[in-house]
Design brief:
This protein folds into three domains: about 180 residues, Alpha-D-Glucose-1,6-Bisphosphate, subunit A, domain 3 (Alpha-D-Glucose-1,6-Bisphosphate, Chain A, domain 3, 3-Layer(aba) Sandwich), CATH 3.40.120; about 220 residues, 3-Layer(aba) Sandwich (Alpha-D-Glucose-1,6-Bisphosphate, Chain A, domain 3), CATH 3.40.120; about 130 residues, Alpha-D-phosphohexomutase, C-terminal domain (TATA-Binding Protein). The protein is about 35% helix and about 25% strand. The strands form six sheets. The chain has a seven-stranded mixed sheet with strand order 2-6-5-3-4-9-8, sandwiched between helices. α2 packs across α3, α2 crosses α5 and α10 runs parallel beside α11. Bound molecules: alpha-D-glucose-1-phosphate-6-vanadate (VG1) and cobalt (II) ion.
C-alpha cells in the first residue's frame, strides 16, 4: 500500500485543555489541522505502532470524516488492529472499557463532550492511553510540543472504510474491525450490577424511568440496556437517535439544557420515578427523582455511603476521590466509613493513578460525572444503573434515599455559577488579583463568615509525585462554607469563569431551603471578592447549575 508523506507546518494553538483538544468545527476543517494533531499523537504514543487502536466518537458533525482520515493515518503509522464503532459511534466510557478489555495501546475519542455540535459548533479529540484513561499532563504536554515542530504527516492511500455494519477488512498489515459499539459495554454492566433485581423493579409495574439521550451517543446504549435487557417500557429512552447536531440541542445534562426531561419529571403523580440524561459522549449524567434533583456531588456521596449494598461493590471501597470544586459531601461519608478521600484537580485524568494504584474505588466531579474502578472514565450509564440497583434494593424513592442521606451526614448546599465569553485577558487578571490576595484574606470576615484558609490549589500526585499547580483559588470559611474560583479548560470562545459555592448545614430542619437562597451569602461574597462587575462588567452569571 502506498504511504503518502505530506509536508505541513505547525499550528500554534494545539494545546489540549481539561479534556483533549477542543475547537470550533471550522478550525478542525482547516487543511492539515486534524492531521497535524493526530500525527503528533502518533509520534508520542509509539506503542500504537504494532498495537491496537480503538476509534470512535459521539456522532457529532465531522465525526465520520475525521474517522476516515484517522484510519488512513493509523494504517500509515503502523497500527496493526483498529477497532471501530459501527457508524463511527463509541461513548467515552465504552472506549475506556474496550482499551482495557482488548489490551489496546490506546483510543481516540472524537467528541467535544457537552459542547454544542453542528457545522457552527465544536469538535474535539481525546486520546486515552493503555490503562483506558485520559492521557496525563506529561503526555499531553509532549503532544503539544510535537505539534509545534511537526513538518509532515503520513496517510495511507486507500478507500474509505464502510462503517455501516459490523465487518472485518485487511489493509496491508492492518486489520480493521467494525464492531457493535454497545455489546462489550452492556456485558460489563451486567457483570457489575444485579440486572435481575432491576428487571424485577421494572416488571413490578410500580416503577418507571425516563432517560434522555439528548440525540447524542448514549441512545443506542440506553435503548439496549434499559429497554431491551432490563425491561423498561418502550419509550423510556427519549431522544434516542444520535444526530450530527444533536437536533439543535445542547447535549449538556443539567436542569437548563435537559428541559424536556425536567418537564417529564416535574409532572403529575404519573411522572417517571427516576429521570436521567447524559451528555454528548456519555460520560456525564444528571439524576432526577420525581420533582427532585440530586446534585452530582451528592450523588457521589450517596453512592459512597451505599456501595456496600450492591453486589458489585460489597467488598467495600478502597477509598474515594473528588475534584477540588466538587462539594465536600463525600468527605463526610469517607470520614464515617474510615476510608481515604483524595482531592484532585479538575479533569478525570487525575483519578487515573489513584484507581490504578487501588487507592480508590469511586470518584466524581461536580460537573455531572461519577465513576468507579470498572474503567478509567466517568460513566453516565453506569451511574444511572447504580441508582436503579440501589432503588431496587431499598425500594425507596430517589428523594427518600437522598433525604435520609442528608439527615445522617448533613446537607451540602451547592451551586456553580458560570460567567461565559469573558475577555481572556480580563479573566486572567481577575484570577491573578485573587491569587495575589490569598494571604491577606485569611482571618477576614465577610457578612459574618470568617475566612480560615485561602490558597491557589496545588496537587501532588501521591503515586507518581508529579505536581500540578494553579488549579483554582479556594476560600474556606469557619462554618465549613467554601468558594472556589477557576477558569474553564474546555471552552472554545473567550474565557469562562466558574464560581463554585458551597454551604454545609447539619440541622435537618434546615434542609429544605431553595439552593440559591441557602447560598445567598456566599454568592454575594464571591461577587465582591472577584470584583466581577468592575473587572468584567458582569452582574449575573450566564449559567447556574
Ligand atoms: C469541565 C468540567 C470538568 C470535566 C471536564 C470534561 O471542565 O468542569 O469537571 O472533567 O469539563 O468533561 P472545565 O475545565 O471546562 O471546567 V467532558 O464530559 O467535557 O469530557
Ligand atoms: Co463528556
Amino acid at each position: 500500500m502506498n504511504i503518502l508523506h505530506t509536508a505541513t507546518s505547525p499550528f500554534t494553538d494545539q494545546k489540549p485543555g481539561t479534556s483533549g483538544l477542543r475547537k470550533k468545527v471550522r478550525v478542525f476543517q482547516t487543511s492539515h489541522y486534524l492531521e497535524n494533531y493526530v500525527q503528533a499523537i502518533f509520534n508520542v504514543a509509539t506503542d500504537l505502532n504494532g498495537g491496537m487502536l480503538i476509534l470512535g466518537g459521539d456522532g457529532r458533525y465531522y465525526n465520520v470524516q475525521a474517522i476516515q482520515t484517522i484510519i488512513k493515518m493509523a494504517v500509515a503509522n503502523g497500527v496493526r488492529h483498529i477497532k471501530l464503532g459501527q457508524a463511527g459511534l463509541f461513548s467515552t466510557p465504552a472506549v475506556s472499557h474496550l482499551i482495557r478489555k482488548y489490551r489496546a495501546a490506546g483510543g481516540l475519542i472524537l467528541s467535544a463532550s457537552h459542547n454544542p455540535g453542528g457545522p457552527e459548533g465544536d469538535f474535539g479529540i481525546k486520546f486515552n492511553t493503555a490503562n483506558g484513561g485520559p492521557a496525563d499532563t506529561q503526555f499531553t504536554d509532549q503532544v503539544y510540543a510535537e505539534s509545534l515542530r511537526i513538518a509532515a504527516y503520513r496517510l495511507a492511500e486507500m478507500e474509505d472504510v464502510p462503517l455501516e455494519a459490523p465487518a472485518h477488512f485487511q489493509y496491508g498489515e492492518t486489520l480493521i474491525e467494525v464492531i457493535d459499539p454497545v455489546s462489550d459495554y452492556a456485558e460489563l454492566m451486567e457483570h457489575i450490577f444485579d440486572f435481575k433485581k432491576i428487571k424485577a423493579l421494572f416488571s413490578s409495574g410500580l416503577f418507571t424511568l425516563c432517560f434522555d439521550a439528548m440525540h447524542a451517543v448514549t441512545g443506542p446504549y440506553a435503548t439496549e440496556i434499559f429497554q431491551r435487557r432490563l425491561g423498561a417500557s418502550t419509550g423510556s429512552v427519549i431522544n434516542a437517535l444520535p444526530q450530527e447536531d444533536f437536533a439543535g440541542g445542547h447535549p449538556d445534562p443539567n436542569l437548563i439544557y435537559a428541559k424536556e426531561l425536567v418537564a417529564h419529571l416535574n409532572g403529575s403523580s404519573k411522572a417517571p420515578n427516576l429521570g436521567a440524561a447524559s451528555d454528548g459522549d456519555g460520560d456525564r449524567y444528571m439524576l432526577l427523582g420525581r420533582n427532585f434533583f440530586v446534585n452530582p456531588s451528592d450523588c457521589l456521596a450517596v453512592m459512597t455511603a451505599n456501595a456496600h449494598l450492591l453486589s458489585g461493590y460489597k467488598q467495600g471501597l478502597n477509598g474515594v476521590a473528588r475534584s477540588l470544586p466538587t462539594s465536600r459531601a463525600v468527605d463526610k461519608v469517607a470520614e464515617t466509613l474510615g476510608i481515604d478521600c483524595y482531592e484532585t484537580p479538575t479533569g478525570w485524568k487525575y483519578f487515573g493513578n489513584l484507581l490504578d494504584d487501588r487507592r480508590i474505588t469511586l470518584c466524581g466531579e461536580e460537573s455531572f460525572g461519577t465513576g468507579s474502578d470498572h474503567i478509567r472514565e466517568k460513566d453516565g450509564i453506569w451511574a444511572v444503573l447504580f441508582w436503579l440497583n440501589l432503588v431496587a434494593i431499598k425500594r425507596q424513592s430517589v428523594e427518600e434515599i437522598t433525604r435520609a442521606h442528608w439527615a445522617r451526614f448533613g446537607r451540602h448546599y451547592y451551586s456553580r455559577h458560570d460567567y461565559e465569553g469573558l475577555d481572556s485577558d480580563l479573566a486572567e487578571q481577575l484570577m491573578e488579583n485573587l491569587r495575589a490576595r490569598t494571604e491577606t484574606l485569611k482571618g477576614q470576615e465577610y457578612a459574618g463568615h470568617v475566612i480560615t484558609d485561602c490558597d491557589d490549589f496545588s496537587y501532588t500526585d501521591p503515586v507518581d509525585h508529579s505536581i500540578t499547580e494553579h488549579q483554582g483559588i479556594r476560600i474556606l470559611f469557619e462554618d465549613e462554607s467554601r468558594i472556589v474560583f477557576r477558569l474553564s479548560g474546555t471552552g472554545t470562545e473567550g474565557a469562562t469563569l466558574r464560581v463554585y459555592l458551597e454551604r454545609y448545614e447539619n440541622d435537618p430542619a434546615l434542609h429544605n431551603i431553595e439552593t440559591q437562597v441557602a447560598l445567598a451569602d456566599m454568592i454575594n461574597i464571591a461577587r465582591e471578592l472577584a470584583e466581577l462587575q468592575t473587572r468584567c462588567g458582569r452582574e449575573q452569571p450566564d449559567i447556574v447549575t
